[in-house]
Predict the structure.
Amino acid sequence: MILEVKNLSVSLDGKKLLDGINMSVESGERHLLSGHNGCGKSTLVNTIAGNPAYTIDCGKIIFDGRDITNENATTRSLMGIFIGAQNVPEIPGLTIISFLKHSIAAHHRFQTGKDLSMGEFLERLEKAQTLLNIPKDWLNRCVNVGFSGGERKRLMLLRLVLTAPKLALLDEPDSGADANVQHQIAETMKTMTDTTFVFISHQPTFTENVGPTNTTTLSQGKVVIK
């Protein structure tokens, strides 16, 4: 079991958004979160990732056998939780290569206790670029500045492949992406067998391409009991 959500209730600015959520995710799953807009799916993935805007009123989040309910987002990320958000910010002045180097180096240091050499980073980066067909000239662009929706999703994929997290939380990874990029996302999810995925999608074709192995459905902040 890679993830257990136990009796989780969450609020935002005093308004309850999740009420008594229970969910279990086995290692290696591609777990779909389904439900209508506003039912609490994005709130759940953001809470699992440690977004401080959300208040946990009660319950626990267990990740890889460890209670992370009170851990901050940085620690959760270094432990192996990746989030691909719907709306990602532009970061003027920060190049993609610098952003990736610092991110991957922090993960490497946390996991191994050793520094990541520039040579090793560049080798890993080149392999990921080749796999995803990412243009080299992207690396000197500022993060997401001037990027289309599809380009932002491809940059998210590059981060995902380089990080190789234990758990990836993807909030509508298909939104804003054309059919080719959606196919690339689905295929990447299926080939990353060492990563467990929890994803949200409202597009049946994309969901079918991913091939979810399990589904949790939410309605009005609660899990729909089958």
